[in-house]
Amino acid sequence: MLNNFENATFLVGDKNIAIGMVSQPTFQPFEQAIIDFLDEFSRSLFKNPVARNWPDVIALAYWCRKNALLKEKGAYPDVSRRTGRGLAFHIAPSNVATNFAWSLVAGLLSGNCNLVRVPSRSFPQVSLICEELNNVLRNRPDIAPFLCLVRYARESGLTDIFSGWCHTRLIWGGDETISTVRKSPIPPRSLDLAFAKRHSLLLIDAGHYLTSINKRAVAVGFYNDTYLMDQNACTSPQLVVWLGTETDKQQARAEFWSELENYVNEKYQLQPITALRKFGRFCHHAAITDGIKRVSMASNLIWRILLDKLDKTTMMQTEPGGYFLEYMADDISEILPVCGNRCQTLALSGVSSKK
Amino acid sequence: MECSEEMLLSPFSLKQQEKQKLITKRLITLTQYHYKNCTAYQRIIDAQGLNIMHLQTLENIPFLPVSLFKQLDLVSVRQEQLIKTMTSSGTSSQKLSRIYLDKPTAINQQKALVKIVSDFTGQARMPLLIIDSPDVMTNRKSFSARGAGILGFSLFGSEKTWALKPDMSLDMPEIDSFLKRNCGKTVLIFGFTFIIWQHFYKQLVQLGKKIDLSLGILIHGGGWKKLNSDAVSAECFSSSLKRLCGIAKHHDYYGMVEQTGTIFMQCKYGHLHASLFSDVIIRNHIDFSVCRDGDPGIIQVLSVIPESYPGHSLLTEDRGIILGIDDCPCGRRGKYFSVLGRVENAELRGCSDTYAEQF
Fold first, then answer.
1. Does A232 touch chain B (CB under 8 A)?
2. CA proximity to B211, closest of B250, B174, B253, B159
3. Given this model, what pLDDT does residue B140 score?
4. How far off is chain A from B39, nearest CA to CA, in Å?
5. What DSSP assignment string belongs to B272-295?
6. What is the pLDDT averaged over residues B224-242?
């Protein structure tokens, strides 16, 4: 069975640490030693000149500072009589570079041992984070038994082995990944935590948008929520809903999308496969639905699809990489069908949250 | 609505300009036909705000993504007119393309294939050695891409011999008796590139056998992805087979189950040629505009055959480049091109590529 480790690359930790994790004792949430360790990790990230190029790495470093962690601890009731569940096996998503690290940090802070499968795609952020973890661990042998970061091919059978060991399994990914991983059994007393595909939408009050002075800044903000992560983050809006009078909606849409287009043309590198997938998504959606219209121009950088209604199938027709469903609502209540249990974030612009 | 005009001409005889006039007319007719007869197609055209009543140029003929045939059953004739279904070969984890054929479409596919291939092999039928196992052909109503390819090329065989057993091992007695029977005759050898390499070439090497196919013409198709990842280039493929069996004449072809029949055959200069029945356009991924000749891009394929399903104009997931028009030294007119591989990260597709996943 252990022969399978030949196919695994340990970025942090090694085979023996991984095997030892099965019987490693757990510890308290927000354990002082862990907080100190993460604080050192945070400082070494800040010191790394390369890290400055990666806003997502800096965000992680910022969150791992001692003060930030103590503040976070304060948000919980007394946890001193609680303990971690044991070995947490994390399957990180392949599309968001730093997600594995956030999952790891959460696992450590909640008092668990952590075996993390990192994305197969070689993000520079992954090597950067692992490098600094290893740097800090060199002086912290007490923490080393609690984390292993490993990369392996899906077919290697290691998911079976690690699943068989773990007390908690965290699955990040699409519905397909989740159902594939669930084919590997976990022990009877173990828990599965699946972070499944979610969707988000943006609600804009057209009249309010038209009064905003810096429309470029709105476009940049929207770009950062969407294109920056290829629209793959759960919080990236896939649907934009407009409220307001007919004339305001028309004018606001024209300005909003043209500002975005300018910025996207400057910043975004469109991959051929993304262009094909967006076109494919559109054709599939159009083939099975009456009354949708492509309203964007010939460029494949921004695809906009105007819908004539919202229903519970609407959010099944999303696509990453700059593909936006658009809807002009007369009343805010029209968004109810797209606010089911998969809806993660409703971003607002000029719409009072009381509505 | 027939493609009879194309059928009468020699498939590589017209210059691009004349050919384009001929096929554009037919492709516009097909576009309007499918618009009228396939709801899904009509919705896709309408949702893009396209007006297909005033189409004039080849470039403006709308295209569908080839992936759509994996997601939907697209048909432009009544259910009872369908006579067979073709699927892309695939493992269970992949979605298969499903292509529905009526009689005219199925017949025209065969006619086109015969005209194209005869231009390379000559008119006469020849003894045919199929580098595959007869198990591929078990169901006569439903064909995988592999089965469809074999069925198509069977038309050129005066007799048919299978080189592999159901477990994909070499059937040496069959091969030996084929060689003995046809000693001194020109023979045709057909198979999928990966299967030829994995199950024919490699097993012969393992057995230490050399066979004499020096009078053979090898035609092979299907993807190169798996071979290339094993560091087997096209040159290596052909020189290895030449060394082992003396095969001097071989033609790779580019084709897909969504446009069966109208394959693009490679001439002796290594160029893929578009016949009178089909054409290629290379498009830029930024806005799908047409690339300048010589610039690489995404391959669009057009075929005058598909009547029972809206597959006459498809945007593939392959990258290619136009090498020239009307001036290939082999003498064939029209566009000639080269396939550069798949658009990175696209789902595996193509007959022997899917099979290759198991290795």
1. no
2. B174
3. 67
4. 8
5. EE--TTEEEEEE-TTT-PBPPTT-
6. 85
